[in-house]
Structures are given as structure tokens and as C-alpha cells.
Design brief:
Layout (H helix, E strand, L loop, with lengths): L3 H7 L3 E6 L21 E3 L2 E4 L2 E2 L4 E3 L3 H5 L2 H16 L4 E5 L10 E3 L2 E2 L1 H16 L3 E5 L9 H11 L9 H4 L1 H15 L16 E5 L13 H17 L4 E3 L29 H5 L6 E6 L5
Parallel strand pairs: 5-6, 6-9, 9-10, 10-11
Antiparallel strand pairs: 1-12, 2-3, 3-4, 7-8
Helix pairs in contact: 5-7, 7-8
This protein binds 2-acetamido-2-deoxy-beta-D-glucopyranose (2 copies).
Length: about 300
């Protein structure tokens, strides 16, 4: 079922966040006042909540929505948040997508399974209960949970002449599908809390995509255009929440002198470009994915 890249996507061990234009990472435990559940904001190079510094101490758990759908497995979601909270963790990264396949959130473009969306509602309400904030990723680069390939297949089904999964980033109709998904998630009214996702301080940040790569254009221009367009779109609907991209963190053509620090030469040819990508207007922080067994 799973390719190597799928396995990597599922078993990320660490996601390092650094606010953009900044060069430090902090692992201090967050101090959140009870009863003051406000949005995390960026002031200059500092993350802030209620005028106090906010420090990310995070973990990655992609499967929360899937297990929140059925009552019989929901307890695992609560248990993860309870454990994380007891360790002083403040941010959890998880999927706000599942496209086309088994227990899909989005069954076809803009067609949602309400029962699965209610699972995601539960994830947000439960995270708040344990004072954990969420990075919600909006689509996968990889095949698991649908991914860009599913979007391109939807386009083909609709009669578009698409030949590459990378046309996820370039074809206007497929970009529309993605924008519609962004809008559906951000404007979702939580059936447990009645809070619209775009107004919910439980969301730490939106993440455009899990590990975007566009190897058909190693110059990076195609992915850069997509990042800029989609960041602007998210900010238009929701100007307050932070936005991240979700890249693994490989250096690209804009920084030739740093290519030597990539895990291997081919990672500089994937159409991603760590420094340039994070300079896109509106991107609030940088991410790096760390796989201790691989790189
Ligand atoms: C589909 O697109 C490919 C590549 O862009 C092109 O070569 C081909 O002629 C197109 N096919 C049709 C039926 O338009
Ligand atoms: C949500 O809204 C509905 C309808 O307005 C209301 O009946 C319900 O009590 C509200 N629930 C919460 C948790 O605020």
C-alpha cells in the first residue's frame, strides 16, 4: 500500500518551526492562562498570545480525524491530547484532509462527508479541552489520504487533459478545487463548539500542504507561484491565523551555496526551495521535517 515516500510522510518524527525572518527555535513549555484562549499571533519575530511570548513545543499525529469519526475509537484522540498535555506539549500537527478514498472527508470536489467533518470538529473541541493548539494541514503531496494525485484524478474525471500529478499546482481548475477545500475548512462551523474554524484560537496555523514537491519544475517557479497564490487566498478568508507551507526544508536554486547541506543532491531538484518559499508574502513561519533514520 505504502511507497517509501508515503511511509516518510506518515512517520515524521519531528517538525521544527521557526518564525520567518527569524533564526531561533525555542522548546520552552508554553504558558497559557486558563480562560484566556486567544489566537497565537506574530509580533515581529515573536509568537505571542495575550501579549505574552508563546513557545511551540509540538508533536505530530496525522490520524486524529480518522479515529474521531467512530465513537468506539474517539477515546484514542482524547488520550493523545491528555498525554501531550501532561508532558507540557502545546501544539499538535494533524490532517484536515482525506480526499477520495477510505473514510474520505472530501468524497469528490466540494462534496463532504458530514460524519467525517464532525470527527474533525471533535478533534478541535478536544484539543481545546486539553489546551493544545493545532496545525491543520490541508492536502497531501503523497498518495495516502488522497493527495495531489486524487485532485488530478478528479480533474481527469471531469474531462480535463491532465498528464502529471504536478498539474495539481498549475491547472486552474485543479487549483480551484484546492481553494474550494480551503474555504470549506476555514469556514466550517464546528458542530460541537459552534465556533467557526477561522475564528477558533485552537487552530495554531494553517499548513498549505504536507511536504509539497513539484519535481516537474526544478526551477521552483511553479511551486512558488502556487504557494504565493494559496497563502494569499488563506489570508483573504482568514487574516488572523498563522500560515505555514509544510515543506520538508530542502535548499533550492535560490541558494546554490547551500545545496551541499541537502540530504542528497536530488533533493535540490524537487521544485522546492526553502529560503525562497518562505519569503512568499504572508507565510508566517518556516518548517523543517526531520527523519532521524533518513537524514
Ligand atoms: C493533452 O496534453 C498533452 C500535453 O500537454 C498534449 O500533448 C496532448 O495533445 C493533449 N491531448 C489532447 C487530447 O488535447
Ligand atoms: C450551538 O448553537 C445551537 C443553535 O444555535 C445551540 O442550540 C447550542 O446550544 C449551541 N451550542 C454551544 C456549545 O454553544
Amino acid at each position: 500500500m505504502a511507497s517509501n515516500s508515503t511511509i516518510r510522510a506518515l512517520y515524521i518524527l519531528g517538525v521544527v518551526l521557526v518564525t520567518c525572518t527569524n533564526a531561533f527555535t525555542s522548546f520552552a513549555v508554553a504558558g497559557i492562562d486558563e480562560g484566556q484562549w486567544s489566537m497565537v499571533q506574530k509580533k515581529g519575530k515573536q509568537l505571542m498570545v495575550n501579549d505574552r511570548p508563546f513557545y511551540v513545543n509540538g508533536f505530530n499525529t496525522y490520524w486524529l480525524m480518522a479515529l474521531a469519526v467512530e465513537k468506539s475509537t474517539r477515546g484514542k484522540v482524547s488520550e493523545v491530547f491528555r498525554l501531550g498535555s501532561s508532558m507540557g506539549l502545546s501544539v499538535c500537527r494533524t490532517w484536515a484532509f482525506n480526499d477520495g478514498g477510505w473514510m474520505a472527508l472530501q468524497k469528490s470536489p466540494s462534496v463532504y462527508d458530514e460524519k467525517v467533518f464532525m470527527g474533525l470538529d471533535f478533534v478541535l473541541s478536544e484539543a481545546k479541552k486539553y489546551k493544545i493548539r493545532l496545525i491543520l494541514s490541508l492536502v497531501n503531496n503523497w498518495r495516502s489520504f488522497g493527495g495531489k494525485g486524487q485532485y488530478v484524478n478528479w480533474g481527469k474525471t471531469a474531462g480535463l487533459n491532465l498528464t502529471s500529478k504536478d498539474e495539481f499546482f498549475s491547472h486552474p481548475v485543479v487549483r480551484d478545487y484546492y481553494r474550494d477545500h480551503v474555504k470549506a475548512v476555514l469556514e466550517r462551523v464546528n458542530t460541537v463548539t459552534n465556533v467557526t474554524y477561522k475564528d477558533d484560537p485552537t487552530v495554531f496555523a494553517w499548513e498549505l500542504m504536507n511536504e509539497p514537491q513539484c519535481p516537474s519544475d526544478p526551477s521552483g517557479d511553479t511551486l512558488q507561484g502556487w504557494i504565493q497564490e494559496m497563502t494569499s487566498y488563506v489570508k483573504m478568508i482568514d487574516p488572523l491565523h498563522l500560515v505555514g507551507i509544510g515543506v520538508e526544508g530542502f535548499y533550492g536554486p535560490s541558494t546554490p551555496e547551500r545545496l551541499q547541506f541537502n540530504p542528497n543532491p536530488s533533493t535540490g531538484q524537487l521544485g522546492t526551495d526553502f529560503v525562497r518559499n518562505h519569503r512568499a508574502f504572508g507565510v508566517d513561519f518556516a518548517s523543517v521535517h526531520i527523519y532521524p533514520d533518513s537524514w
